[in-house]
Amino acid sequence: MIRYLIRRLNLFLATSLILFIVMFIAVSKFPVDRIAALTGVQQPTAQQITRITQDYRLNDGQISQFIAYLQQRLDGDLGLSSTSQNLILDELTAVLPASFELGFFAGLIAVLFGIPLGVLASLSTNKITQHSIMAITLTGYSIPVFWLGLTLSLWFGVQLGWLPISGQINLLYEIDSVTGFLLIDTLLSDSKYALSAFLDALQHIILPAVTLAVLPFTVVVRITRSAMMTIMEETYIKAAEARGLHTSTIVMRHALPNAFIPVLKNLGLMLGAFASYAMVVEVIFSWPGVGAWLVSGIYQRDYTVIQGGILSVALLIIFLSILIEIMHTALNPISRKELYAAN
Amino acid sequence: MKDLIKRLTFGSTLGCTIVLLLSACGPTRVPSGLVYCSEGNPESFNPQLVTSGTTVDATSQQLYDGLLDYDAKFGELIPSLATSWDISDDEKVYTFHLRQGVQFHHSDSFSPTRNFNADDVLFSFNRIIDSTHPYHDVSKTGYPFFQSIGFTDLIGKIEKVSDYQVAFHLNRKDASFLSNLATGFAVILSKEYADQLTKMNEQAQIDRLAIGTGPFRLIQYVKNDYIRYYRNKNYWRLTPEVEQVVFDITPKSTTRLAKLITGDCNISALPKAGELPVVIDKETLEVDSIPGFNVAFWALNTERIPLNDVRVRRALAHAIDKENILRAVYQKTAVEAVGMLPPLSWAYSSNTSITQYDPAKARRLLAEAGVTDLTIDIWAIPVARIYNPNAHKTAELIQADLANIGVKVNIITYDWSVFNQKLSKHSYDSVLIGWNADNSDPDNFFTPILSCASVESNSNRSRWCDPAFDAILESAKSTTDKLKRSAFYQQAEQQIAQQVPLIPFAHATRLVVKNKNVTQSKLTPFGGISFTNTTQAATTAIDERGIQ
After folding, report:
1. CA quadruple B45, B46, B50, B56: dihedral positive or negative?
2. What are phi and psi of B8, to 5 degrees?
C-alpha cells in the first residue's frame, strides 16, 4: 500500500512539474515585458529590477531560470496583480473559499439527488419511469450550462422574483471574514443580523449551485443506474434474495456500496469539466470565486492573475483527481487485489 | 421538449420547497442602508487625480466637500466649506471665508485633533499647483482636470489671510474660476492627515484610505466587489438619513438591472436604453431622469495619417448618420448634438451649422484628399457612460456607415483599466468617448477637451492643438458678460465644425433606475450622485422577496 501511495505521489509531482514547465514557457510568450509577466510590477525601480533579475536569475540560462521560477512559485510568491498591485496569493486566498463553497454545494446536490434517482431508475420495472428518468438526465447532460444559468436566473430571479441571481450575499450585511467561507462566517458573526445574513447567503447560493449541479447530477444518475443494474444481476445479490432479505436491505447494504465505486471514479474523471463549468457559472452569477477572478484577469490582461489562476486551478484538479483515485483504490476490493498482485 | 418541461418542473418544485423552507424560518431582517449598483471600480479615492465619472461618483459627493457647490435647480453657486467669498475689483483676487467647526472623518488610523481650517485649503490646492510640494508627485497620474484647464498657470499664489480666510491670487481674469472650484474635482483634503502619513512614510495612502469632510466616510473597498461607506455622524450639514451606503460594483448593465429586480440593490446606474421598458413594466421600479450636461463624440486622432488631413475628417463627419445612432443606441433618451454645448447651456445656440449626412459628399471629399482603401480603428469605450450607454453598438453603426463610403473600420475594445492605459499612449486612430460636464460653465466643454493644454494632460483625445482656437477660449474667459461670452463660444463651435477634430453626435439624458421606496436620491445633470438626503421608505418592502 505504501508503495502505491508513493507511486501516486510521484504521479502528482511529475504532473505538477509538467504544468510548471508549460507555465514557464507560456510566461516567456506573454506579450509584455518579462519582469512584468513574472512579478506583475508595472514600473519597476532600478532597485526592483536588480532584485527581480537576481531572484529569477534572468541573466542565466533557461534551465537555471526555470529552477528559480519554480523556487519562487513554490515559496508562495506568485507576484503582484498588475491591475490592483495586491499580492496574488492574498487575492487567491480571498476568492478560493467562495469557489469551494459553490463546488461543495453543487456536489452535495448532485449526490443527494442523483444516487436515489439512479437507484430508482435501476429498480423500477416501469418502462415509462425508466425512460423518463434517462431522458431527463440525457437532456440535462446536453444542455449548455451558460444557457441553463441564464434561463434559471430569468425565471426564478427576474420573472418570479424568488431568488437572488447575482453575488454571494446582500451587501448590506457586513460579515467579517474568519474562515473565508461565507456561510460559516455568517453563523460565526456576532452581529444581530447573523441569522438573516445566513439565510440570505443560502438563498444566493441556490441558483448557482443548482446550475452547476446539473452536469454531475446527470452523470451520477446514469452511472448509479448502470452500476446498480450490473450488480443486481450478480450471484451474491441473488443469494441474498434467496435467503429472503428485504429488497431495501439488499440495496442499502450490498448493492449500493459497490455501485458507489464507479460513481466515485467517474466523479474523479469529471473534475476538469466540472471546474470549467464552475467558471462559467461564476461569471453568469457574478459569484466572487476563482473563476470570475480569472476571467476578469484575462479581460484586463493581468498576466500574473492568469498565471496564478491557472496554476491554482490546475494543481487543485491534479491533486483532487489523484485523491479520488486513491480513495477509489482504498474502497475497491478488486483494485486492492490487483495492487497486491503487482507488488 | 416534453422532457425539458419535466426537468424544469422538477427544478421549480425543488426551488419552491427550498424558498418556502427559508421564508418559514422567519422574516429576514436587513440592516438599514442603501445599495447602489455602480458601473466600475474607482481608479482612486481622490477625485483630484482623475477625470472618470465612475471615480467622481464614488468620491466627490460622498467623501468630500469643496469650497463651493453648484445648485443645479437654480443654476447658481452656493456656499459649501466657504461660507462666502469676495472678488477684488480687478477680478484677480478671490477671498474665501471658511466655515468654522467642520470636522474631518475619523478612521481606524486617523483621529483629527483640529477642525477644518485654511491650512487644509492651502494643502489641497498647493498639492496640485506646486510641483515641489511633497505630495505633488504622490499622484502617479498627475492632476488631469486641473492640467487641462491650465490651473497651475492661472493661480499666482494662494495666501492664508487668517485661519478662516484664504485668498487666491490669479494671474489673469478667468470667468470660469469659481465654476471650476465648484466641480467634483476641487475637493478639500486634510493637512493633518497628510502630516501624519508623512511621519509614517505612507504618503500614497492619502488617495486610498480617504479622509474628507463629506457626508459619508470610507469603510472598506474590495476591488471588483464593493465599496462600503458609513454615514458621517458629525456632518456639518444635516446628517444623512441612511446609516450606510454600499456601492455594488457591477460592470454588466443587465446584471445591474437583475440585481435591482431581485432587490440586491436599490438604485442602479446607467441603464441601457433598451432596458428601460423592463423597468417601466415592473411595479416596484421607476426611472429617474434629468437632461444631461454632456456630449458624446467620436474623437479623431489628428496626429495620425491620414486623419491629419481636414478633408478626410470632414468626409467622415458627412458619412455618419447621427439620427440612426440616436434611434438605435439611445432610443429617445438623447438629443442630437449640433455642437459641443448641450441645449441646457446658456451659451447654446441651435443655429450652429450642422454637418449634413451626405455620403456622396463624403466620397467626393475622400477622393479630393486622394485617399483610397482607408482602414481606421475605432476604439469603443468598454463601459457604459452617461453620455454613451453602449459605445460598441455605436461603433458598429459607424462601421456600417463608413462601409458605404468605402472606408473599412476595425472596432477595438479592452477592459476599462487596460483601455484607459492604452488610450493614454495615444496609439489609436479614433475613439468613441464623450464628456460629462463638471459644472455649468460653457468653458467646461472646450478647454478640458480641446485646448492645447489638454493635449499634455491626455484629456484631449483628438490630440488637436490650434492656437487660434485657444485664443477664442481665452477671450471668452476674460469677460463676465454672458452675451459676449456666448458669442465667443459660438465662434469656437464654428471652428470645431470646420476643423472637425471630433464629431459630436448626442447629448444623453442622465438616467438611474431605482426601487420606488427609495426617495430623493439627488441626481445632478453633471457628474456625481448624492445620497445625503436619500431615505428608504419601508425596509420591510424588500424583505418580502421570497414571498412575492
Report:
1. positive
2. -75, -35
Asked if the model's pLDDT at residue A325 lies above 60, the reply is: yes
Give me the residues paired with residue A197 across strands: none
Q: Chain B closest CA to A200's CA: distance in Å?
A: 8
Of residues B323, B324, B302, the one with CA closest to residue B314: B302
Domains of chain B, CATH where assigned: 41-212 (3.90.76.10), 294-509 (3.10.105.10)
Query: C-alpha distances in angstroms, B347 versus B180, B444, B489?
Result: 17, 12, 7
Chain A: closest CA distance from residue B455 (Å): 23
Contact A319, A12 (CB under 8 A): yes
Cell 464654428 belongs to which residue? B494
Q: In this complex, which of A139, A172, A200 lies closest to B246 when CB atoms are compared? A: A172
The confidence score (pLDDT) of residue B540 equals 32
Per the DSSP assignment, residues forming a β-bridge with B507 are: B335
Cis peptide before B467 (omega within 30 of 0): no
Q: Which grid cell is A244?
A: 429472503
Which residue from B154, B158, B168, B182 is spatially nearest to B60, judged by alpha carbons? B182
Name residues 295-314 of chain A within 8 A of B (Cβ): 296, 299-301
Q: Answer yes or no: are the C-beta atoms of A132 and A312 closer than 8 Å.
A: no
C-alpha of B169 from chain center: 29
User: Would you call A86 and B415 a contact, using CB atoms and an 8 Å cutoff?
Assistant: no
Tens digits of per-residue pLDDT, A178-213?
Answer: 888 888 888 888 888 888 889 989 999 999 999 999
pLDDT in tens, B267-297: 888 888 888 888 888 888 888 888 888 899 9
Q: Are B92 and B172 in contact (CB under 8 A)?
A: yes
Cα–Cα dist A186/A197, whole Å: 6
Longest dimension (CA), chain B: 84
DSSP letters of A46-101?
A: HHHHHHHHHHTTTTS-HHHHHHHHHHHHHTT---B-TTT--BHHHHHHHHHHHHHH
Mutate to test the interface with B, among A136, A172, A173, A196 (most CBs of B within 10 A): A172
CA dihedral B211, B214, B219, B224 (to 10 degrees): -100
d(CA B408, CA B366): 13
Model pLDDT, residue B354: 66
Buried b (16+ CB within 10 A) or exposed e, B152-172: eebbeebeeeeebbbbbebee
Tell me if residue B451 falls in helix, strand or coil. coil
Is B14's pLDDT higher than 80?
no
For A88-342, give the CATH class.
mainly alpha
Residues A170, B259: C-beta atoms closer than 8 Å: no
From CA A176, how far away is CA B483, in angstroms rounded? 59
Ranges of H-type helices in A124-157:
127-142, 145-152
User: Which residue of chain B comes nearest to A95, CA vs CA?
Assistant: B225
C-alpha to C-alpha distances, A141 to A63, A218, A282, B18, B72, nearest whole angstrom: 45, 6, 19, 24, 57
Q: What is chain B's mean pLDDT, rounded?
A: 84
Number of neighbouring beta carbons within 10 Å of residue B459 = 22
- How far is it, in rounded angstroms, from Cα B371 to Cα B383? 33
How high is the ipTM of this complex? 0.78
Confidence check: pLDDT of B263 > 60: yes
Cβ contact B318:B481 at 8 Å: no
Per-residue exposure over B227-251, b if at least 16 CB sit within 10 Å of its own CB, e if not: bbbbbbeebbeeebbbebbbbbbbb
Helical axes A2-29 vs A62-74, angle rounded to 10°? 120
C-alpha span between B432 and B380 (Å, rounded): 5
